[in-house]
Amino acid sequence: MTDIDLKLASWKLVEVGRVVLLRSGPFTGKLAAIVEIVDHKRVLVDGPSTEEKKIVPRHVAALSHVTLTPFVIPKLPRSAGTGPVRKLWEKSEIDGKWAKSSWAQKAEKAERRKNLTDFERFKVLRLRKQARFEVQKAHAKIRAAAPKS
């Protein structure tokens, strides 16, 4: 027999400790951790964020209404209370990791764009035109300096 090197898939599994992003309901856009798996369609979540406006109270959420993130709180016991979840949340620095993720940065950028005034949208348009002009000018210089073949 030959030795086979098995590699565990890096899928995001529904597991106790997995951090999820809520996509619908009153807590849309907030993070929570899976505390208990109720059945194949529902999980018990708790979001003891360090920021007051991002706290999610413990409740049952449908898996169809959450998105699994790549973050996991290690060694979170099943059905842990809000206190232990909060301690492990802070120890794992979930809020900091989330803020650094490209996912959160894109959401924050979209929210900022959504709240622009008419004049601010006009200023963005002008700045994008200026940047595009500078790029075109640089490309023109490069093409002019390139040897003709």
Automatic annotation (TrEMBL):
Entry keywords, A to Z: Cytoplasm, Ribonucleoprotein, Ribosomal protein
One cellular component term from this protein's GO annotations in UniProt: cytosolic large ribosomal subunit
GO biological process: ribosomal large subunit biogenesis; translation
All residue ranges annotated as the KOW domain in the record: 16-46
Family named by the database record: Belongs to the eukaryotic ribosomal protein eL14 family.
Job description of the protein: Component of the ribosome, a large ribonucleoprotein complex responsible for the synthesis of proteins in the cell. The small ribosomal subunit (SSU) binds messenger RNAs (mRNAs) and translates the encoded message by selecting cognate aminoacyl-transfer RNA (tRNA) molecules. The large subunit (LSU) contains the ribosomal catalytic site termed the peptidyl transferase center (PTC), which catalyzes the formation of peptide bonds, thereby polymerizing the amino acids delivered by tRNAs into a polypeptide chain.
Name of the molecule in the record: KOW domain-containing protein
Species name: Penicilliopsis zonata CBS 506.65
Source species taxonomy: Eukaryota, Fungi, Dikarya, Ascomycota, Pezizomycotina
